[in-house]
Write a structure and sequence with these properties.
The protein is mainly α and about 180 residues long. The protein is about 70% helix and about 5% strand. It folds into two domains: about 110 residues, Arc Repressor Mutant, subunit A, CATH 1.10.10; about 30 residues.
Length: about 180
């Protein structure tokens, strides 16, 4: 029985080594693990404010755009599909943080507008998120932070270009899908 356990562990180690030996995979895994840890910390920090990290990001996106965007514009800004944005807007609309406004000229177009209550909630919760960001970023030098941002933006552009190419080839409009 003990030997069987050892063989199983050896197979797991071999698989991990093989996975991590693939060019870029170790970095993807590290990025994924860091993202999940940061996301969970953010969720815990924002719990008293009854906001999720995506919800605060949506509110901040609206605020940065003057308070009103279409669902498609939000999707592109957040790199999320329109269905995901619809769910986020639903959860922000219920407590009155945003409201939907239908375009009079084109009923298919839906504008999302941040309310005064949403602005107050963002003002209340944003320091929690920015404080956590500053605290975690203290583990890196300014130069490391600058390099990390440049690297992640470059990787993000490559992924977005690839996604656009796939969606275009499949006949879907990449911009029409909220991405």
């Amino acid at each position: 029985m003990y030997r069987k356990g050892c063989a199983c562990m050896a197979k797991k180690q071999d698989w991990k080594a093989k996975l991590k030996s693939t060019r870029g995979m170790a970095q993807w895994i590290a990025t994924y693990e860091a993202y999940n840890a940061i996301f969970k910390l953010s969720e815990l920090a924002l719990l008293p404010h009854r906001l999720s990290l995506p919800q605060i990001y949506l509110l901040a996106t609206l605020k940065g755009a003057g308070g009103t965007l279409t669902t498609g514009e939000i999707g592109r800004a957040m790199v999320k599909a329109s269905q995901t944005i619809t769910g986020l807007v639903d959860r922000l609309e219920d407590p009155g943080f945003v409201e939907r406004v239908f375009d009079r000229r084109d009923r298919r177009k839906v504008w999302v507008r941040m309310t005064k209550k949403g602005e107050q909630k963002l003002q209340e919760a944003l320091p929690v998120s920015t404080g956590l960001s500053e605290e975690l970023s203290a583990a890196l030098s300014d130069q490391e932070l600058t390099q990390l941002q440049a690297t992640m933006e470059k990787l993000g552009r490559a992924a977005t270009d690839k996604l656009d190419a796939i969606l275009t080839a499949s006949g879907s409009s990449p911009r029409g899908r909220g991405i």
